[in-house]
Specification:
By secondary structure, the chain is α+β, with helices and mostly antiparallel strands. It has two domains: about 70 residues, 3-Layer(aba) Sandwich (Glutaredoxin); about 130 residues, Glutathione S-transferase Yfyf (Class Pi), Chain A, domain 2 (Up-down Bundle), CATH 1.20.1050. About 55% of the residues lie in helices and about 5% in strands. It has a four-stranded mixed sheet, with helices on one face. The protein binds glutathione.
Amino acid sequence: MKLYYHPVSTTSRIAWLGAEECGEKCELQVIDLMTGEHMKPPYSDMNPNKLVPMLEDGDFRLTESASILRYIAEKCKSPAYPTELRARARVNEMMDWFNSNIYKDLAYGLVYPQIFPNHQRPSEEMQKGTLAWHKERTENWLKILDEKLIGPKKAYLTGDAITIADYQGGEIIGLGEIVRCNYAKYPNITRWMGKIKALPSWPKVNEVFYGFAASVKDKPFVAV
Ligand SMILES: N[C@@H](CCC(=O)N[C@@H](CS)C(=O)NCC(=O)O)C(=O)O
């Protein structure tokens, strides 16, 4: 299998972490978002969304990081994607929760407008308003995640065993570190993130992202 990705992209790292943790060594092909490689042929012909990641498995191409994660886990018969009906429904529920709820506020509303020039709002007032709005929404999701979805008893999102939802959720919450989000006030999230960061492939998959975070460490950011 071949994964078209960029190492700073959160959605790429979700797919890559899943592949590594499931024991699937994908061939990796960087699509350089910084030079706009994703906007031009041949990549834009293969993926009209002009986004990364994309998986290629023979003549089969798949976009959407959550779908890629599920496909790889299914193909590898990974225990991280349980087959029992309700256990699997819980994993899917958490993946949908991350994608539809916190990802759009934390990533697209709070982080990306501050780190990607093409996501910056056209006026200072709009930028300020956007960040304030999504910061509040992000805090709301973090509180729910901390107190209700993880809570004090669970090791992982759906119980005692790690699942692909944890791979996805860990990368999404980890993204906040680039604008120096302080998760200390969310003890259950902090405890859970400690476990995700202890995954064997976490350092390798996130190395370039942490390098990027270090390069903006002195820049002032709005964060939770
Ligand atoms: N829903 C998609 C979102 C993919 C996505 O937003 N990818 C970003 C990187 S994290 C991208 O390719 N951005 C390029 C751009 O905005 O020009 C998924 O989960 O795969």
